[in-house]
Design a protein that fits this description.
heterodimer, A: mainly alpha, B: mainly alpha, 11 helices
Chain lengths: 114, 262
Amino acid sequence: MTDAEARLRSWISTTLTVGMLLAIVVMLVGLALALVTGRGLEAGPDWVAGLMGAEPGSIVMFGVLLLTLTPVVQLVVAALAFGRAGEHRYLVITLIVLGLLVGSVAIAIVVGNR
Amino acid sequence: MTALLLGLAGLGAGAFGSLLGLGGGVLLVPVLTLVFGYPIVVAAGASLVAVIATSASAASHYVRTGQADVRLGLVLETATVVGALVGGLLAGFLPERVLAFGFAALLAYVAVILARRAMDGRADGDATEGDEDEGHRPLPRRLIVPAFASAGGAGVISSLLGIGGGIVKVPLVHLLLGRSMRVSVATSNFVIGVTAAAGAFPYLARGDVDPAVAGPVVVGVAAGAFLGARLGGRINARLLAIVFILVLLYTAAQMALRGMSG
C-alpha cells in the first residue's frame, strides 16, 4: 500500500469517527440535560434559537445536524487526499458527488420552506 | 422510559445492520412504526439520521482496514445521491401502497437470487478471503449503465422509505460487480452515509426529525454499529449471506402487509 493510499484511508476514517463521536457526544449532552432538568426534548422549526437557552431538544438537533454534515466533510477530506495524491480522476468524481450533495441541501431548504 | 426503549431498539438495529451492510433502517422503520406507533415520516426521519451514524461508525473501520473499495463507492455515489434527490421529490406523488408492494417484490427477488448463489456454493470463496485487502477494481465498461441504474434506484428507495439502501447496494456490488460479500458489505456501508445524508436533508428542512425519537435511537444505533463492525471480521461469510436472505424475506412480508393495509 502506498503512502497516498494510507493517507486517504486514514483521513476518511478519522473524519467519519470524529464527526460521528462529536455528534453522539452532543446528543448525549442533550439527552442527559433532559433527564436531569426534566425538560422535554421538543424542538420546533426555530430550534437554533433554543441553543442559547441550552434547550435539550435544540442540543439534540444540533447533534443531528453535525451527524448529517459528517458525510459532506468526509467528501471534502477525500477530495483533498485525491488532490494531494494527484489522482485527478477521483478528485473530479469526489467533487461531483460533493456538488450534487450541496445541490440537494439547497433544494431541500427551498422546498422545505415553501 | 420510552427513551430507554428507543435506545435499546436502536442498539439491536445498529448491531444487526452493520453486520449485514444495512444501515439498520430496514429494521428501524418497521420497529418505530409497528412497535412504537410513530408516524412513518417521523420513523423515516429518525432512521435516516441513525443510518448516517451506522454508516460512519462501520465505514470508518472498513475504510481503515481496506475492506471498502472507496473509489468504487465514490463512483456509485454520483448515482445514489441523484437517486436520493429524485426519491425525495417522488415521495410526494406516489401512493404508499404502490411503493410498499414494489419494494416487497424487489426484496423477495433479491432474496431468491442470493439464496441460489449460496446453494451453488459460490459463496464459499468468500469465507476463505478473510480480511485480505482487495484494493480497487475499476467498474467494467459493460457494467457502467446497469451499475448506475441500480445505484440510482438504491438512492430513490433510500430517501422514499427512510433506509440506507444497503439492501440494494450489497447485492449490486456482490451480484452485479462480482465482488466478495465482505467487500460488498464494506463498500455499501461507505456509500450509505453520503446517500442517507442526501435523503436526510429534506426531512430536516421540513421539520420531520423529532429529537425525542432521533436522539435516543441514534445513540443506541451508534453503539450497536460499533459492536457489529468489530464482530464482522469474525463472522462466516456464508452465515452472513443466510442471515441476509432471512432479513430480506422478513422485510418483504412487512412491506406487503403495509401495502395491504395502506
